[in-house]
Amino acid sequence: MGGMFQSLPGFREFYPEDCAVRNRIFQTWREACARFAFQEFDGPALEPLELFTAKSGPEIVSQLFNFTDKGGREVALRPEMTPTLARLVGARAGSLKRPIRWFSIGENFRYEKQQKGRLRSFYQLNADILGEAGPSADAEIITLLIHVLQSFGLGESDFIIRLSDRNLWLCLLESLAVPEALYPEALSAIDKLEREDGPALIEKLSQAGIPNADKLYAAATELAAINDLADLKTFFGNSDSSVALERLEQWDALMTQIEAQGIASFVKVDLGIVRGLAYYTGFVFEAFQTVGKGRALAGGGRYDNLVEKLGGQPLPAVGFGMGDVTLRDLLELKDLVPEGAESPNAYLVIGGAEERPFALGIAAQLRSEGLRVEYGLKDAGFGKQFKAADHSGARFAVIIGQEEKAGGGAKVKDLQSGKETFVLSAEIADFIVKELP
Ligand code: HAM
Prior knowledge:
By secondary structure, this protein is α+β, with helices and mostly antiparallel strands. It is built from 17 helices and 16 strands. It has an eight-stranded mixed beta sheet with strand order 1-5-6-11-10-9-7-8. Strands 13-12-14-15-16 form a five-stranded mixed beta sheet, sandwiched between helices. Strands 2-4-3 form a three-stranded antiparallel beta sheet. The structure holds histidyl-adenosine monophosphate. Histidyl-adenosine monophosphate is lined by residues 80, 82, 110, 112, 118-119, 122, 124, 126, 128, 277, 296-301, 319-323, 325-326.
């Protein structure tokens, strides 16, 4: 098979049955966002390289699909939607009604080591609120994230949201005198606490030029292990940082609103979440499946400086991205994959060449009424056509033989009940529509 013309590693092909599932996933995403009154936007898949090297951080930069185009421009396929969104909103910040509630569904590209759940091309739902700095926006975004996952039939036994705070992590870095320029490296190393062993991480931290890497490692391990609000308050309780104290008040406000939405059981305080992207500035969170391999379904947080840093005016923002790969794997595991392709409503069984023009007229009529219609493109015996009708999954066979044509109509056969009815051609569409579920 294939050889020379195989698809690239990490890129998927969508045969119709896969495309149908993908469309159902997109449809569920769109319907969930519509319920929260989010508007859809889109942007280019190919962007200037600097859009991503500027603020996304070292991890994403190392995964870019980038090249020089024929005009000598440095370009990259987008690895994420957030910088594009920040640019779009920044360019019109003066005229957009606030808060801005936008979502987008698009393909992203990351040159990752291919593994289960991680591909080089994937689709992402992004939902973001811009223009509101208070925790009510964070609460709304987290509520939407949970609503989206519930819309697929997933529940409390399937996923959790781990909620953390990038600003509290920055308070820790500041208190340990880590130079600000090294925050991205430090956070990216801390992000790997769960996956890498201590000595290796300490080595990585000191190589990045961070002083007292072992002290930072010890404090980070302690903070990362915190799993409730009370412990978090104790950890920062003696802090003389006004930022830390102000953050703890925001935590109370956020948790109150999450409780009011009845979704507190989905949300776990977990300072072990740091997030790999550099631009986050406040609450950060990740949705993980709690069955199977425990992979990440979605991630997001607050990024109050990105719009301004990419050239717009200051505009606070919070949002999340949810990928289609781990989501679909989880839906498969739970037997919740949304129903696939839609079969035709009617399959025309045509007597022969004599009847074909009359039958095509009926097909045109049914289609103009919005019905899905199929028929054989070559003349064939009835037996073969009925087999094809069954195979197509159509609910009705519309039989047009010599006799039916002479009578000005067709025999409509309900392939579920076997019942046959002669119907005049002008009435076939109505007849079928009435019988459909
Ligand atoms: P992220 O955590 O990099 O965040 O990606 C979010 C989700 O996209 C992940 O949880 C995962 O489901 C999916 N994903 C990421 N990389 C891959 C991959 N290589 N293969 C398959 N799925 C993947 C962001 O992208 C942020 N821009 C989200 C955001 C929006 N933050 C604020 N607004």
